[in-house]
Design goal:
The chain has 277 residues and is an alpha/beta fold. Helix content is 35%, strand content 15%.
Length: 277
């Protein structure tokens, strides 16, 4: 029986974990990162912004304050940044990270990297190349946290982005601008460009932590996980990665055709007491 379960799990492209709600999703994701830090205190984390990872960051802060989890040797690289915003702007991703995570843990500021949204236009190409080199110099990313946009993008890799793309200046899709307008006074204030890690950059991470919550993400999550590999849903590129943890709440998992199968395999993991990718 155990061998049969192991064979079924080996055939999965991604490790799909379905949790009851957002809080449980956040705790599951935080537990994976906590285990990495305990195993490798000088690990390199790839971090994301937006509403989805906030619960994850709250849990990491709790681990730090209540359990003494130390980030003093951890290095972080963020996926992206709005182009044209100063780091001190309330909607910049540097500000987001400082506010929602960095200020409440013992990470060294010099070990936290976010693309510089205020870099001069003539320096963009060099800055992006330098960002790639910093990641390599740090030893590569151990775990990359990802959310998913309404149009299926990861980082700011909009539909049509090459799977080989690297960190670069990108123009934002109209849907992305509209989706993100809730963070600004209106859509006209949302920057139209961003600096973003490329899909190729993301796929080089040793492990992926892909998070999605809410019924509004259900259809696009199903396309990314179960649909065809296509640049029109850039999150589908994760099907090419050998170690992806997909952590969803029940609402985000609603449209999955193989929902029952994923729940079965999730229970089966408990029987063999090990994650299978």
């Amino acid at each position: 029986m155990i061998q049969k379960i192991y064979k079924i799990l080996q055939e999965m492209i991604m490790r799909i974990i379905i949790k009851k709600n957002y809080d449980d999703l956040s705790k599951e994701a935080a537990g994976i990162i906590r285990n990495l830090i305990k195993t490798k205190p000088d690990c390199v984390l790839g971090l994301a912004t937006g509403s989805t990872p906030i619960g994850l960051y709250r849990e990491l802060i709790r681990f730090h304050k209540e359990e003494g989890l130390s980030f003093s040797r951890v290095t972080t690289f963020n996926l992206d940044e709005y182009y044209g915003l100063q780091p001190s702007h309330p909607q910049s991703y540097r500000y987001f990270m400082d506010t929602n995570l960095f200020k409440d843990i013992d990470i060294k500021p010099e070990n936290t990297f976010v693309p510089e949204g205020s870099v001069k236009r003539q320096d963009i190409v060099r800055h992006c190349a330098d960002y790639e080199q910093r990641i390599k110099k740090a030893g590569g990313i151990d775990i990359q946290v990802l959310g998913i946009g309404g149009d299926g993008h990861i980082a700011f890799n909009e539909p049509g982005s090459s799977f080989n793309s690297r960190t670069r200046l990108v123009s934002l899709d109209a849907q992305t601008i509209n989706d993100n307008s809730r963070f600004f006074n209106n859509s006209e204030e949302v920057p139209q460009f961003a600096l973003s890690m490329g899909i190729g950059t993301i796929l080089e991470a040793r492990e992926i932590l892909f998070l999605a919550s809410g019924e509004n993400k259900a259809d696009i999550v199903a396309q990314a996980i179960e649909g065809p590999l296509t640049s029109m849903v850039t999150a589908s590129a994760l099907q090419l990665h050998p170690k992806v943890n997909v952590i969803l709440d029940e609402e985000a998992a609603f449209s999955l055709k193989r929902y029952s199968y994923y729940k079965f395999t999730q229970e089966a993991e408990g029987k063999i007491e090990m994650p299978i990718f």
